[in-house]
Amino acid sequence: MSYNLLMGKKGIIFGALDENSIAWKVAERAYEEKASFILTNTPASLRMGKIYDLSKKTKSIVIPADATSISDIEILFDKALIFFGGKIDFILHSIAMSINIRKKLEYPCINYDFLKKGWDISAVSFHKIMKIAWDKKAINKWGSIVALTYIASKRNFPSYVDMSDYKSYLESIARNFGYFWGIKEKVRVNTVSLSPIYTKAAASISGFKDFLYLSNKLSPLGNASSQDCADYIITLFSDLTRKVTMQNLYNDGGFSKIGINECLISLKD
Amino acid sequence: MSYNLLMGKKGIIFGALDENSIAWKVAERAYEEKASFILTNTPASLRMGKIYDLSKKTKSIVIPADATSISDIEILFDKALIFFGGKIDFILHSIAMSINIRKKLEYPCINYDFLKKGWDISAVSFHKIMKIAWDKKAINKWGSIVALTYIASKRNFPSYVDMSDYKSYLESIARNFGYFWGIKEKVRVNTVSLSPIYTKAAASISGFKDFLYLSNKLSPLGNASSQDCADYIITLFSDLTRKVTMQNLYNDGGFSKIGINECLISLKD
Amino acid sequence: MSYNLLMGKKGIIFGALDENSIAWKVAERAYEEKASFILTNTPASLRMGKIYDLSKKTKSIVIPADATSISDIEILFDKALIFFGGKIDFILHSIAMSINIRKKLEYPCINYDFLKKGWDISAVSFHKIMKIAWDKKAINKWGSIVALTYIASKRNFPSYVDMSDYKSYLESIARNFGYFWGIKEKVRVNTVSLSPIYTKAAASISGFKDFLYLSNKLSPLGNASSQDCADYIITLFSDLTRKVTMQNLYNDGGFSKIGINECLISLKD
Amino acid sequence: MSYNLLMGKKGIIFGALDENSIAWKVAERAYEEKASFILTNTPASLRMGKIYDLSKKTKSIVIPADATSISDIEILFDKALIFFGGKIDFILHSIAMSINIRKKLEYPCINYDFLKKGWDISAVSFHKIMKIAWDKKAINKWGSIVALTYIASKRNFPSYVDMSDYKSYLESIARNFGYFWGIKEKVRVNTVSLSPIYTKAAASISGFKDFLYLSNKLSPLGNASSQDCADYIITLFSDLTRKVTMQNLYNDGGFSKIGINECLISLKD
Hints:
The structure is a homotetramer. The radius of gyration of chain A is 18 Å and the shape is globular. Chain A contains 10 helices and 7 strands. By secondary structure, chain A is of the alpha/beta class. Chain A has a single domain, classed as Rossmann fold (3-Layer(aba) Sandwich). In chain A, strands 3-2-1-4-5-6-7 form a 7-stranded parallel beta sheet, with helices on both faces. In chain A, helix 7 links the parallel strand 5 (139-149) and strand 6 (188-194). Chains in contact: A-B, A-C, A-D, B-C, B-D, C-D.
């Protein structure tokens, strides 16, 4: 199904790895909606994953870039501006990694070197990408920038460990950079707060399957799938949401607004 | 411009009066996106306004109904189910009225009879509409219900007087009824929090033009117009936002996320 | 234990019924902290409850008043001003009632006559009390007004039915009246959002004991008791919190900030 | 004036520099309320500031520690446990520094080495302090940990530059560590969000005086002073707020809840 919502729009999608990636689904849906885009991920991810299958399928090109490296991002944007012969319209940031989670360290016992790395990859990379795009004036008026987040930024989910704090930081970046993009370039910046999704990154979270099950059971509409997520992000890249900016938007089946209900009480019995 | 986003969808739009009404723009955009719908408003509003011009333009029918009257709403839904030969997919609630505002009463001095009336019209009507739709099982799976609100529900805007409290109540209804719609019928319920818009209702607010000017100046992307608002609501009625529910969504040019900035400081000089 | 935190302060406490009432504990603690106050409740509640035991214990007087009746509240404030020989310093609003809950009606099936009554008692009464106090200039500079609320105002708790919406409205009143009290009289207005507490009113909520159990289990510090609640409210009446206003303050053992954790996951097994 | 609210309580206060520091006022008030405590700051700050005047005045000792250094914090807690002959009851974190602000760099142009340093000092230090306290089991049951923050964590204040993001991160740490402290040790963790205050750190923010003026004018009760702030923090260290945890609490004269009002409109004229 296609509505041609992104006809003529060009973008960069960060973070597609394999068909479970949210960025992968966004790329597929953006392609269906007639967008052109560049796929990017770290060289290591490009080797591990199947991104070239995606690029073939979506007639897009792949440019490797480590999103924590200023020079990599600069090269990426330079190439993008040349490739498209002009500015782009949208960016998806779907990048998150916590070594502390992988190493099964609990929140009070995290390692601070891992923390610095995880923060740089999961949060600061979003600032770096926008800074380079800003310096190069790479985004068209009424463009749209989206980063993915999770409600652990607002409430405690112990299994998200330090990722919770990165997501708070990421959402803060969206608000703060969003102000400047808004006043100077009429570009909007938002974060989308998703249901948990079983991606490669999520697989490293201990007890993730229980987590997924509970989240689904407690969400009045069930978990939003990566497909649901992609559909929603398409609307944020389209021209129909031009005045929505600096927001954190829940696409979570209602999970964020539930309290104690029969479903929760029934768990107890 | 049309994406056929609402192809095959049927709905009821409450609250169109004249071409400045937000509901009016939503109707125009919904028509462009290929929806069929019924327009409704109170008999008095139908006489005062130009709704029949809109119904002609959008090939829709008009059914008068006072949204505070259970029997009126029942008749409306009965007729809608017959007219469409089945259930509907979307509802827009764009109804708000405060006699206290019209009478220029300040918040500490409101009249409680006016309050009861304003609350019933502006907030309880939303519950009543959903209750009748619920009882009659009138909404298709994955349907979408939207009510319009303003940030005065969260912060103090003295010129909104008692309307601020109605909007808090309205947003609460969306969350609470949204839970039941979600678990039983897979229907979503959201409120959209808009920039101020110069409608007939707004005209009764004292100092509204200054208000509009300041809001526009302080919003990084400027105020969202009723056109912007209509575009956004189309995405919420479409199949692309199926898992978004029980949310209060700002379409406000970023106003809700600003603090003290140069623009505010410059006012001072 | 006493810190003399309210030495010389005078107030009115609405809503004490029996020793399970939160207002009862607040009165006891306020007395220990050296406040003088008037106890008030409806004539019917005065008959049913044990308020005269409390008044004896706390050397306070009882003045009957229906908090939905403007004339009752006027008489109450007139008497208070005479009794104290001057203005008062604090007010506690601990009033809530839902006939829909008592009648075991679910949220989508509420009765609108009951709704009007419940809204008037549980929410509008707070406005009425402040309006009369405002008109009579009955509150000293740096006075403090507190109303009690519950997190059902922000998220869905189906068993709170229409009380959820009243609490949203109540919190909105606090913000909006708080602005006027602040600028004109240097008086602060806040709501305190509590853990569930097994009061007479709570007893009418279906499944309240399960609810209480779960809330306690999920709150990192356990539920706040009515004693904890009273202690907290004392700080809000004291001179140590003079610049805290228009806030909704959680005294809930951390419940409002939890997501999915081991305790929740363990329920599932 | 003293209520003996902290009689018998022991703590550590981070961040007092001179008599404009918020931590300085907290120390003075804690002393009046009969607490014993250790003052700490970096060796450089100890040289620059007047902390020994404060220690004399409050009969406290000074232990130098760089709050980004694990070994410094370990030594500090070891000494504290010996000095007090047992666990402590409260911690104040009042530490914030942004080189990007000092260097007058705007948000889109920040330097990432400065960022790493600022983040470590202003936010991660709070995690480090709690981690060492956690490992050493240094805090008594029902202890209280407070960090200071600003509303720039939630909305955009361009002059706060990267400090805004640090404060978001800091508040997130409070929530996440607060969960563990709660379930294991019955200790609470909160952040207090203050009015702007003219401290040494604030002096480096460009246009801070205009900022202070506007904030004061727009806050219904005016800005909270450092004295107001200290009073409030005393209540959070006392036994009267035992069930308040994982919260971000505004002590800001109502600033956080204002929208567009006459005062704002009058600026325009």
